[in-house]
Design brief:
The chain is of the alpha+beta class and 418 residues long. Helices cover 36% and strands 34% of the residues. The longest helix has 61 residues.
Length: 418
């Protein structure tokens, strides 16, 4: 038998070589992809073209920019109480007026006819009342005469009765004769009582008729006074002194009751009316203050009235000047006002900038300590004013942030400042 020969194992079997080769290729691919991605997500930018802001901590007050129109401190609108045809116009728009000045006159034929009919009705009622009163006085005289006659008969019969009462005691007259006179006396006594009671009731009834006629006449007179007042209202007069800034009426034009035909502005001062986005309607309260710049100075305003009606997604407020009004301010001017929404409080602040249009305030480019590399940083913003945002998460005081526009950066993860 031949001797067995020892076979030496290979140090690098093909299977092991294949595994290592595959692992190497995988590492190379991963490194390639990572480096390729990093190169794709990194952008070189010119530092001088950027706005770099520092995050700070300090007092923050939320306020919003609004535009306000300067208006007279008080405006009275001309809304005639009565309708009619414009008959005469005494003043033109732009005229200065004093309280009580006649502005225009309306004609209303139906009202004039109604007044004439009511006057005739009042005359008839007044005549009827006079006739009723005269009739009542005559009737009172008649009743008085009737009562006097009965009382006279009663007194005569009383004397006869008393005399017969004495005679019957001495048997000078018969009992029958006495009783006849007694019955007659008692009859007249009852008749007198009944007459007094009947006259009293009758007079009360007639007095009630007179009082009803008097009440009716008084109502007619009151109605006529109202109609005469309506007739006076056909002449439209200035309720206040000021400037007749508008008058929309022409001769022969028909005006309805309550139709607005013009306005008078009081020129002793001004107020400001501002339109505000409905988003803030729950946060605007009376006495909120605002400020604006005019002719090199800053002035304050305070909210004096809120109009809750929303139109075109906006509501309006009236604001009054605090202290002296600016010299040179005029009706119709537009003021750019910063209106406060809350009290001053400490907060972390990020200056406003063009970055917000791209990120919506969800992230920013935050610089590292060297100041040469900026990477994306998730943040959360809360309130804001025209100067700064309130930061509630993602940044701390002292951080450097690019706050200028991100439009040219695409979706880069990292910026290298050159």
């Amino acid at each position: 038998m031949g001797m067995d020969r020892t076979i030496k194992k290979k140090k690098w079997p093909l299977k092991r070589i294949a595994v290592y080769a595959a692992a190497g290729v995988f590492i190379i691919v991963v490194l390639y992809v990572f480096l390729f991605k990093m190169s794709k997500s990194t952008l070189n930018v010119q530092a001088e073209r950027l706005t770099i802001s520092t995050v700070t901590k300090g007092p923050f007050q939320e306020y919003i920019p609004v535009q306000g129109e300067v208006l007279p401190i008080y405006t009275h609108y001309l809304d005639p109480l009565e309708g009619g045809i414009v008959e005469e116009i005494y003043l033109e728009a732009g005229s200065m007026v004093n309280k009580g000045d006649q502005i225009l006159k309306l004609a209303n034929t139906n009202l004039i006819i109604d007044i004439m009919w009511r006057e005739a009705e009042l005359f008839r009622a007044s005549d009827n009342l006079r006739g009723t009163r005269l009739s009542m006085e005559q009737y009172k005289l008649l009743l008085s005469k009737e009562l006097v006659d009965i009382e006279s008969r009663l007194q005569k019969q009383k004397r006869v009765y008393e005399r017969y009462n004495e005679l019957v005691k001495d048997d000078l007259i018969s009992q029958h004769e006495f009783e006849l006179e007694k019955d007659q006396y008692e009859y007249l006594l009852k008749l007198n009582e009944l007459t007094i009671e009947s006259q009293k009731t009758d007079l009360m009834f007639r007095q009630a008729q007179v009082e009803a006629l008097e009440d009716s006449l008084e109502r007619m007179q009151s109605n006529l006074v109202v109609l005469k007042q309506k007739q006076d209202n056909l002449t439209v007069k200035a309720p206040i002194s000021g400037q007749l800034t508008s008058l929309r009426a022409k001769i022969g034009e028909s005006i309805s009751p309550g139709q607005r035909i013009g306005q008078i502005d009081m020129l002793e001062g001004f107020r400001v009316r501002a339109g505000i986005d409905e988003h803030y309607i729950a946060r605007i309260e009376k006495d909120r203050t605002g400020k604006f710049d005019f002719a090199g100075n800053t002035y304050k305003l305070v909210v004096s009235r809120i109009y809750p009606e929303v139109q075109d997604n906006r509501f309006e407020v009236d604001m009054e000047f605090v202290g002296k009004q600016p010299e040179g301010i005029r009706r119709g001017m537009t003021l750019h006002i910063s209106l406060e929404l809350g009290d001053i409080a400490e907060a972390i602040l990020l200056p406003r900038g063009g970055f917000y249009q791209t990120t919506g305030g969800n992230w920013v480019y935050l610089l590292d300590e060297s100041g040469s590399i900026a990477t994306k940083q998730r943040i959360r913003l809360n309130r804001y004013n025209p100067e700064a945002f309130e930061v509630i998460e993602g940044l701390k005081p002292g951080d450097k942030v690019i706050t200028s526009s991100y439009e040219s950066f695409g979706n880069m993860e990292r910026l290298v400042l050159k």
